[in-house]
Amino acid sequence: PGDQEAGELGLAAVPGRQAAFRQALEAAVHYARAVGCPRIHVMAGRVPLGTDRAAVAGEMETTFIENLRYAADLLAQEDMIGLLEPINSRITDPRYYLNTPQQAAAILEKVGRPNLKLQLDLFHCQIMDGNLSSNLEKYFPLIGHIQIAQVPGRHEPDSPGELNFPYIFELLESLGYAGYVGCEYAPKGDTLEGLGWLRSYWESRGLQHGGTSKEAK
């Protein structure tokens, strides 16, 4: 994430921070290797304070592409995947550079490396673009990780909000998604109590707690 006390939230697209980005990436690879995690979120970073987004967009994209190619080469040596996550600029972070799946897909195409993927957080995607079913289908070949949270409160999937998660989960299954779904939400209360939505979902699908079929038991 860079120097968070100085207001940074990632370095990959920030001009002039290339050396710090490479140093941070090497540290991230070290940690990921130690814990056996094959995916690293390569954070783009924020539009510098006092600058207009449109005025620096070209320079930031050039920096981002250069750093991503470097990252892809380094991660390939470790058999790891780099992930790009668009973060909404309407609620969460107005200055974050990478803010839509369309922008991320365009950059991934320009970088052209198979070990870089899209980390699609449905909370951010819904706020910036909506159209989740179509976006999941369109960008599915690029997706390397999915994250969820209800909109707009960013709480559990069964909390009041805009998204129908049972439908979304079935859509992901029908598309053949076999990866993890990260619970990127803030529990309204206790963490374990907040996982009640998952137990209810398993039961609605005829599954035991843990996701195994009752018939198999």
What would you note in describing this structure?
The chain is α/β, with parallel strands linked by helices. The protein has one domain: TIM Barrel, CATH 3.20.20. 41% of the residues lie in helices and 10% in strands. It has seven helices and five strands; from the N terminus they run αβαβαβααβαβα. The protein has helices at residues 18-35, 53-77, 101-111, 122-128, 132-139, 165-175, 196-204; strands at 39-41, 81-84, 116-121, 143-148, 181-183. The protein has a five-stranded parallel sheet. Helix 3 (101-111) links the parallel strand 2 and strand 3. It starts with 17 loop residues before the first helix and ends in a 13-residue tail after the last helix. The mean pLDDT is 94. It is an enzyme of class 5 (isomerase). GO terms for molecular function: hydroxypyruvate isomerase activity. This is Putative hydroxypyruvate isomerase. It catalyses: 3-hydroxypyruvate = 2-hydroxy-3-oxopropanoate. Belongs to the hyi family.
Average predicted local confidence, pLDDT: 94
Radius of gyration (CA) equals 18 Å
Q: How many angstroms does the end-to-end distance come to?
A: 44 Å
- SSE pattern, N- to C-terminal: HEHEHEHHEHEH
The global form is globular
The tally of structural domains comes to: 1
Describe the largest sheet: 5 strands, parallel
Q: What CATH architecture label applies?
A: Alpha-Beta Barrel
Please name the fourth-level CATH homologous superfamily: Divalent-metal-dependent TIM barrel enzymes
**SS field, number of helical segments:** 7
Instruction: Predict the CATH topology.
Output: TIM Barrel
Strand content: 5-15%
Query: What is the CATH first-level class name?
Result: Alpha Beta
Q: Helix content range of the residues, please?
A: 40-55%
Please give the order of strands in the largest beta sheet: 1-2-3-4-5
The counted number of beta strands is 5
**Broad structural category:** alpha/beta
**pLDDT < 50 stretches:** none
